[in-house]
Amino acid sequence: MFKFNAFVGRRRQVIDALCTFMLIIACLFNIAVSPYCMCVMESCHKHELTAVLVRVKTVMPQTVAVVCLVIRAKTMLHSANGEFREYEDKAREYDACFLDRVGGAFVAFIVSAYAVTILPINAYRLYLIYRDVRDHTVTAFFMLMYVQNLCTCSTEIHYVARCSRLYRRFCRINEDVSTLKLATVAANRYPSVLLQSADGRDDDDNRRRGTMSWTRPMAGDVELLRMRHQCVRDAVGDLNDLYGVQLLLSLCILCLMTVIDTYGEMFRKYSLARSQAFLYVWLTHYSFRLCAIVLTTHFTMKQGYRTKTLASDINNRILDTSTKEELYLFSNQILRSSLEFTTCDFFTLNAHFITSTIFAVITYFIVLFQYVR
Q1: Measured distance CA(39)–CA(209) in Å, rounded
Q2: What is the C-alpha separation between 93 and 85, in angstroms, rounded?
Q3: pTM of this prediction?
Q4: Which of 67-81, 293-307, 321-335, 347-361 comes out lowest in average pLDDT?
Q5: Chain mean position to CA 43
Q6: CA 16 to CA 12: how far, in whole Å?
Q7: Each residue's pLDDT tens digit, 10-42
Q8: Could you give the 3-state DSSP secondary structure of residue 348?
């Protein structure tokens, strides 16, 4: 069994190395032939006025290739160092200790949305290029560019999937903290329950008397929740380290593609293999990718910080000294720990980032429009 697993592991490493080598060749090919392919697509040999448009549009495939190379290199580096394996091992240990099972419905929705918004429109574009341009180099160029974009999308999907798991864990913790809060409220409504807790009777005696002492929050329960929250907070930091560079590049390329595709649609008089549907579907795809990344992280942060509010609310209602100490320690640990998802400390991924990105895209588009008009 051990030999078989070792064989499978070596085979996977060989396949990953081969895919990486082919991806490097494809990226270098696209960087080299981008000017020629963009010139053919914009008919620059017939219309000199499109020279500026060709230079602008050449930036996008070259940037896509460079971003794909860097993301792949960063991912391979983390894999070689065993950081992804270590992260998954910690996740399995958490699931085993706290019996946490996260459903895959959200991840399935994300993958389906990515596929629906990118595969059909790209396949149709390749068909038009093959039919109208009839240049095998151009067809291969765009096919490879779409493959490189899919590699970037794959990294984003992996991040969103891992982030959604943290979101669900925070939600489970908050559900348990809310249960303790409700038990505290119920205990405060019936002072006899508190008196029975102090007289030393066991749980069976209390249940026979009709009390609910077995549902009251205790210091051990709070300590267990604090440990669970600490594990998820550590996972947030690990996720920042694993995907900081990749997310920064992905968000930058999304903004760049939005600006260039919008500009190209406005000045597509001589462009080949074009359709009015392209821009709308592409913008929908870019917007969805941005929102999937940012909103998933935003709601995960909100759930993480919501625990502090619930713990503080229980602390104001509880009377047991040891439990109050645990709740105070719980709140302080959350307050002093960072739950923010950042891209190499350049941007904080929250809802405000979306509005900032929209204004930035509009600003750069206006600057570009004034430069080339």
Answers
A1: 86
A2: 12
A3: 0.84
A4: 321-335
A5: 39
A6: 6
A7: 677 778 788 888 989 999 999 999 888 888 887
A8: strand
Q: Helices marked H in 267-320 — which ranges?
A: 276-315
315 and 180 Cβ atoms separated by less than 8 Å: no
As a whole number of angstroms, the distance between CA 128 and CA 305 comes to 50
Report residue 170 CA to chain centroid gap: 16
Contact between residue 334 and residue 307 where contact means Cβ atoms under 8 Å apart? yes
Beta strand residue intervals within the chain, DSSP E: none
Closest CA to 101 of 8, 33, 169: 169
Please report the pLDDT score of residue 215 as a whole number: 45
| CA nearest to 350, candidates 304, 273, 297 | 297
Name the nearest CA neighbour of 229 among 156, 126, 309: 309
Average pLDDT over residues 97-104: 69
Tell me which of 1 and 152 has the higher pLDDT: 152
Q: At what angle do helices 219-266 and 51-80 cross, to 10 degrees?
A: 160
**Across the strands, what pairs with 348?**
342
Q: Are residues 244 and 342 in contact, defined by beta-carbon separation less than 8 angstroms? A: yes
Radius of gyration (Cα) for the chain, nearest Å?
27
Residue of 106, 55, 97 whose CA lies nearest to 372: 55
Query: Given CA atoms 264, 268, 272, 275 in this order, what sign does their dihedral have?
Result: positive
CB 197 within 8 A of CB 216: yes
Residue identified by tokens 């929705």 is 109
Check if the beta carbon of residue 311 is closer than 8 Å to that of residue 177: yes
Number of neighbours of residue 332 by Cβ within 10 angstroms: 12
Of 84, 219, 105, the residue nearest 167 (C-alpha): 105
With 0-12 CB in 10 A as exposed, 13-18 as middle and 19+ as buried, what is 80? exposed
CA distance 237 to 77: 18
